[in-house]
Amino acid sequence: MIRIHIFLVFLLLPLTMRSQEDICIGKKYSLYSTVLQEERNYWVHLPDNYEGDTTQRYQVIYLLDGDSFFHSVVGISQTFTTVKGKHLPPSIIVGVLNVDRTRDLTPTASAARRDGKISPGTLPQGGGSESFCRFLTEELRGVIDSSYRTNGQNMLIGHSYSGLFTLNTFLRHTELFDTYLAIDPSLWWDQGKLSQEAASLIEGKNFAGKSLYIGVASKKRTDRVDIHLNKVNHLLQEILPQAENLRFFSKSFPEENHGTVAIPGIYDGIKQLFGK
Amino acid sequence: MIRIHIFLVFLLLPLTMRSQEDICIGKKYSLYSTVLQEERNYWVHLPDNYEGDTTQRYQVIYLLDGDSFFHSVVGISQTFTTVKGKHLPPSIIVGVLNVDRTRDLTPTASAARRDGKISPGTLPQGGGSESFCRFLTEELRGVIDSSYRTNGQNMLIGHSYSGLFTLNTFLRHTELFDTYLAIDPSLWWDQGKLSQEAASLIEGKNFAGKSLYIGVASKKRTDRVDIHLNKVNHLLQEILPQAENLRFFSKSFPEENHGTVAIPGIYDGIKQLFGK
């Protein structure tokens, strides 16, 4: 039996050594959401020194559209910690994967297109953001907070529909996160309803301790009519400057379109939100 | 003996399943360089479908300062392949790690500071870029080309001293790479020697088939005197537009400094070099 044990150790040794040569940035997990009644996947990245210093606790970044942006945001956080000019405290990054973006990320059901018009016979879609928000901040956060050394600081990052979700959460459930980063939020949704409601949602509210960044792709496009930019500008220029005690940042990207703005926007947002 | 084998399979099964849940972006390797007479580390990322389609061959991106930028550039390439608007063909990314940046990345030995002045008693440093270039394009490329399905297209990415190395390689050994991406190259090195030599280095040369991008951090700084920006502007405006048949792109980043420009610069460079 001793000989078998020795044999086992020698058998496993090269496997262990080989696996040390992999460069891994996180792990894949899933949990069953009773709110959404489905299995949901999420990916978790831990800061480099997580195992080394077991007394430190960390901010959690909830990154929507994790399938598209997890690798980039982990990379950006890695560069920010190795290159001069640190702009982000070491963070736990939780990439949340999609099942049905329209259902989960939009605050109201709507049949309207990007140009604000409704084609005859189109059925309303979406409107499930309240349930998704409960999954995110009750079920998923519960698992994250009980599994890792979190410090109670939470950040939400979203682009496009996820940017709309981020802004909607900021406006309606401000208390749920500390830092909000929304890139090119789809404010054209439901004929611009959220931007119309924004003024009344911030009225009388105190945003002390909260930070918001909005990045906007402002490259002119001729291929489609879109009420998006008008709604965003209204929010940026008229509404948000009135939010009391809010740390608010924004940037317009005249050379980026809705798709290409995500990475430069997230990068600039992190830099402005956490910069010195 | 059969029972022991069955026991082994059950013992290893959970390990295998657990390891499948890791999110890995590459592997760490090293090789002994006879040119540099030292062991050199490099990291390799293979495109997602590398094992799935064994007939496809890929461009290789040689990324300098791999320790700082490997994760980010892998992430950017990942986002470019999952989000609308693909801007980069699937590529093998080779991150090259540093041993002595000043020695390896500068083309001449120099005692001059960023302001062009030489403090009394300062000894010249650097000047080893020819040896490092041979390591990179003979020894390392030899290993990469014989280990992976490369297609003969090679790209070089470098920031700061590595940007200087990238530009020097472009000017002196144009044939060695197809695409060059230099971010905020340290043209102040040796009192701006490379930019002084640039005009004669491009004279009479045909750059057909070659592409170059230069990203420049143009945020004004008051904390130090630096001859860098003058040298860069001279190169961008006077010299490079004369390079025959060169595909040349550049961008100035007025809100970024030398440290923060790396990621937005690499992102924009890839977008411009490979965009439609």
From TrEMBL, chains A, B:
<dbReference type="Pfam" id="PF00756">
    <property type="entry name" value="Esterase"/>
</dbReference>
<dbReference type="InterPro" id="IPR052558">
    <property type="entry name" value="Siderophore_Hydrolase_D"/>
</dbReference>
<keyword id="KW-0378">Hydrolase</keyword>
<dbReference type="InterPro" id="IPR029058">
    <property type="entry name" value="AB_hydrolase_fold"/>
</dbReference>
<comment type="similarity">
    <text>Belongs to the esterase D family.</text>
</comment>
<protein>
    <recommendedName>
        <fullName>Alpha/beta hydrolase</fullName>
    </recommendedName>
</protein>
<dbReference type="InterPro" id="IPR000801">
    <property type="entry name" value="Esterase-like"/>
</dbReference>
